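Margin note from the TA: students keep mixing up input and output lines. Inputs are the sequences; the output is the structure of the whole complex. Example:
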Amino acid sequence: MLKLLQSLLLIFLTSIVFQANAASEEKPFAEQKVVLQISDADPGKQTLVLNVANNLIKAYGPDMVDVEIVAFGPGLRLLFDDNGNKGRISGLTDNGVRFAACGNTLKNVSKQLGRTPALNSHSTQVPAGVVRIVELVNQGYILVKP
Amino acid sequence: MLKLLQSLLLIFLTSIVFQANAASEEKPFAEQKVVLQISDADPGKQTLVLNVANNLIKAYGPDMVDVEIVAFGPGLRLLFDDNGNKGRISGLTDNGVRFAACGNTLKNVSKQLGRTPALNSHSTQVPAGVVRIVELVNQGYILVKP
Amino acid sequence: MLKLLQSLLLIFLTSIVFQANAASEEKPFAEQKVVLQISDADPGKQTLVLNVANNLIKAYGPDMVDVEIVAFGPGLRLLFDDNGNKGRISGLTDNGVRFAACGNTLKNVSKQLGRTPALNSHSTQVPAGVVRIVELVNQGYILVKP
């Protein structure tokens, strides 16, 4: 009986540790984690990825879903400071959505333009968009590309 | 010894319940589950997603693969009742492929058109396409966007 | 106590077998496995998928990441022998990146063209691109479509 209790205690403690690890610091109660990818040039995709983030927040509630949008390639334009979706990005940030900008793409774009475009202040630069995506999937995020 | 047997019985019962949950009711013998996403405006993508569904059915056999196609954003057009792929959708339905239509997109489109477009009778409306995708991935489906 | 030891040994051996299975033969030390999908017609996507493969190699090092690019649908063009990215494909192959060409797509294209286009000698033909993707995801690869 003692051993059974020990086993149950071990399972219980393991599950606590696991959940603490799985939950992001920003959203400790998030039961679902989703990484949204934008890498298309089509501006319609910018609207779509923001709609999808919004639908996730509506469906789960802002505290119950952890959403990060990773932009790379031609999709990085979403996170340029002069992008027309600035207001929506700010609104989603208020609901805890995070935005990651690919540093490799920024370097390439800067070379082509001869200057480094300013990024949205709500975005965080990461070394490589795809590596960030791989990291998040390894942490249990589901990857969706709208 | 009795305790060991009890533990094994518990593990055994748990695994049965889990498998029953994991398998869809429609395809109890499916060894592979795939959710295909269509969210592009390009009509070529409609052909492609149907081709991919067909290739899965051909490769695994209709009883061994469980395929659901989730349409949202501009991709919802595939499931409009007047879409030219109606015959192919009907054929795939005969092989057990399911079609889910995003309710959020339908609401947006209806506002823009001033009327609600009729959906293919083989499709099922879901509240949000992305939430359906997340649900299916949580159930062990592999997400592919052709 | 003996039984506990037996159980632990079994778990240990199972985990060794699992890890041996999971590692690909080509890259026995790869800690990360990624399958990149190309199925778009847009030539910009050909550049992007090769950039992404390159970024993965740069970030993890060629021996530590296992990358396979699967081309199907209009994306198969990347692997046509006369594609302009031949030099880059060759360079990535030197770093262990593999290229899989969808046999179903090749059949369809051959019918339309009245001839079978030659494929890049660095690519391997697979019966169906989507089935190859499903196989790789089942082996622990993360699927990213740039």
